[in-house]
Amino acid sequence: MAEIRRCISCNYERGFHISFMATEKGNKVGLICPSCGQSFDIGWVLQETFEKPLPGRKYV
User: Fold this and answer.
1) Which DSSP state fits 24?
2) How many angstroms separate the CA atoms of 46 and 43, rounded?
3) Predicted TM-score (pTM) of this structure
């Protein structure tokens, strides 16, 4: 798989935000460009996830 880093809509090259959407097959992972807001379905589905996200390390 090639690196998924550049938005094909606006050419922003510094990565994406991610989103999760509940489906019948699990939680679908999507990408959202932080520059133009375009969303992308990359076909990733997580079978097992927490009902409520657990806090992890805080990066500052």
Assistant:
1) T
2) 10
3) 0.75
Angstrom distance (rounded) from CA 26 to CA 49? 8
3-class state of residue 12 by DSSP? coil
Q: Quick check: 18 and 29 in contact, CB under 8 A?
A: yes
Beta bridge partners of 19: 30
| Structure confidence by residue, pLDDT tens digits, 6-37 | 999 999 999 999 998 888 888 899 999 999 99
Long-range contacts of 37-44 (CB under 8 A, 24+ apart): 38/7, 38/9, 38/10, 40/16, 42/4
* Sequence-distant (≥ 6) Cβ neighbours of residue 28 within 8 angstroms: 20, 21, 22, 41, 44, 45
